[in-house]
């Protein structure tokens, strides 16, 4: 380590000003925090003894001082060693300090080998900026009595210049952070709005929030009346799918009332944590941000951290901006989903329409080509035109709705029933052979015969059945055509049987 410039430190007031101006020029031209700490050290070491040196920054809100840089006998270190700021007399009082000997007894930061030589004398000066203490800088020597009052005065002058440079670097760093954050939120916004699938949007929202807020996990819960349910979760926040709980008395009720971000310290014991979530919580603290769609709180985005670290005010602002983007994307996805559902649903019966049926059948036929059994029933109401002509179209619509309800009730969730057109309906039965199809048709006929509305009007049902036969059939149309042929064959046989009966009765 080079020896200090004794002439500069012991010289005239004019010489001291010259040194400080030169140091000021060098410091203010450095904007990277890491480079700035190193420059403060090297400039200080040029003019005073600095065998040991450190820079400490102070967070007044948390009363936390952190050593961000130190050097010992020329070995520079980028570190983060924390201690309570109020324990430091320099930070607490905002005044510099001089220790002629016995650093061990007077300083919180001791340099040197633990079992070997340690520093003996030291100076420390507060980093002061506009009435605030930003931290401190300290030089230490392995010799007793290495410093004099004029050295301390010079160190304080360096600290004052360094405080301005540190604050400038912080300001520039904050501007750059905000610029990058704004760009990231804009990118996220584009990514969110590019998707029209609600579940995909929700998954992207959670991932983006975790990234931007340096969180360990997150979840989205949606409101359904006075209940909430987990729509998705990721990371450390791993809740069971579709977990539900009452809104009353929980953080969601608070979000509905305030429409503001809720900070939740100690998630396990927080009174606003829903009881249904407590057994699954592995995080320490979290944020809950309201998702506001069309003026109403429709749910919440939550993020968590496994360590009990406080979220900053800036974190809250970022979360709010992200939630606004997410709400717009989710509203778009919901609108698209509603429109898509409408385009795939028969408005009279509420069953899937022919377009929906086509999409479903193409998927099922593809599976049938690979060996999966598939049966299709084509059903229609007998003499429905005559029914409409005699009872009227309003009664006809009621009959169609009643029949659709029976079909929906008799159809398993894995299968599909759809309105094919007019009074014709299709039931698609996956993993079902012809015998199962016939039993299904018989149950429907029995339900029709027992229905008060349909039985009172003597409404009956006919069906045609077809099983997909690989090699003989290739397309959806082949399967539907086979069922249609079977339907008309059965009707023709029934009409022939009726005619035969009539002839016999007349004879």
* Classification by helices and strands: alpha+beta
Shape: rod-shaped
**Main β-sheet, spatial strand arrangement:** 3-2-1-6-5-4
Q: How far do the termini sit from each other? A: 130 Å
Mean pLDDT value? 84
Number of helices: 15
Number of strands: 16
Strand content: 15-25%
Mind summarizing the main beta sheet? 6 strands, antiparallel
Enumerate the spans where pLDDT stays under 50 for 5 or more consecutive residues.
1-11
Q: Give the % helix.
A: 40-55%
Radius of gyration: 39 Å
Provide an overview of this structure:
There is one protein chain. 47% of the residues lie in helices and 23% in strands. It has 15 helices and 16 strands. The chain has helices spanning 6-10, 13-28, 33-47, 89-93, 103-106, 149-193, 198-212, 251-258, 313-343, 354-369, 384-391, 393-410, 434-450, 452-456, 476-506, and strands spanning 52-59, 64-72, 75-84, 97-99, 121-129, 132-141, 217-224, 227-235, 244-246, 262-264, 285-293, 296-305, 374-381, 416-421, 424-430, 461-467. The strands form 3 sheets. It has a 6-stranded antiparallel β-sheet with strand order 3-2-1-6-5-4. The radius of gyration is 39 Å and the shape is rod-shaped.
